[in-house]
Predict the 3D structure of the following.
Amino acid sequence: MLYHKEIYWSDSFDSQSLTLIRSIERLSNHVYEHIESGKPRYDINIRQVYFIIQDINESNCHPFEVEVENDKVVKCVIRVRYDDERDISIVVREGFIVTMWVNSNMDTHKTLDRSKYEKK
């Protein structure tokens, strides 16, 4: 089941997401393919991403989307500051980053498809 912070959110999603983020050991091949593509949304410094991940803690872990199976968060998506002009969204599954992209920190994503998410 897929949940979005603007539609329905359980308090446990944040703490479970932090556990998932702390499990990161590697990046997916998908991430490397995107970075090598040269597209602006994948203009990402991997070393900087690891610093960002290391700085995530109980007070600043604010995922906006999670996937839940059997009451356990198995995927989370976080958006955090990347630099002065951009944020980075990072998709995490147990042990690795699935994908990530940067976008303007002024982008508010007003195109949310509410039908994709549980309303519990």
The chain has a mean pLDDT of 94.
